[in-house]
Amino acid sequence: MKVAISSDHGGNRLRAEIRDLMDGMGIEYEDFGPRDDSSVDYPDYARPVAERVAAGEFDRGIVICGTGIGMSIAANKVKGIRCALCHDVFSAKATRGHNDSNVLAMGERVIGPGLAREIAQTWLEGEFEGGRHERRIEKITELEQ
Ligand code: RB5
């Protein structure tokens, strides 16, 4: 699996945590920044991750900001992206199983690093259940037309 990851300045520390998690899991990833702590605009960092996942260059994306909200809103504007904002493990598992989410958003200012790592690991390992959920994903895709 190949993962694209980015944050804004509000998510830099958590992005480093999740990179460390993926190193430990042996997951290949590319980091789309930012490179330092200066203030940036989250849509500029959600965009490259969302566009590359939508283009099929990466299997999944992870985007992080202070709340996770701005990043998730921006990522979901890109056709083909189903970005799930998760701050609990149950939602992380359910959104892979039911929504086949291809981008995960989290907020560094909302949860601690330990929980964030568990959420990300659960989401990265989670599998889409298909079946009746497939039809619902197709209806989401229809909304994009
Ligand atoms: C940046 O201050 C903050 O607005 C951003 O990280 C994010 O929380 C936006 O949704």
Automatic annotation (TrEMBL):
Any GO BP annotation: carbohydrate metabolic process
Record keywords, A-Z: Isomerase
Residues that coordinate or bind D-ribulose 5-phosphate: D8, H9, G66, T67, G68, I69, G70, N99, R109, R132, R136
Cross-referenced InterPro entries: RpiB (IPR004785), RpiB_LacA_LacB (IPR003500), RpiB_LacA_LacB_sf (IPR036569), SPI_LacAB/RpiB (IPR051812)
SUPFAM superfamilies, sorted: Ribose/Galactose isomerase RpiB/AlsB (SSF89623)
One Pfam family cited in the UniProt record for this chain: LacAB_rpiB
Active site: residue positions: C65 (proton acceptor), H98 (proton donor)
Entry's Gene Ontology molecular function annotations: intramolecular oxidoreductase activity, interconverting aldoses and ketoses
Keyword field contains Isomerase: yes
Family statement: Belongs to the LacAB/RpiB family.
Name of the protein: Ribose-5-phosphate isomerase
Species in which this protein is naturally found: Edaphobacillus lindanitolerans
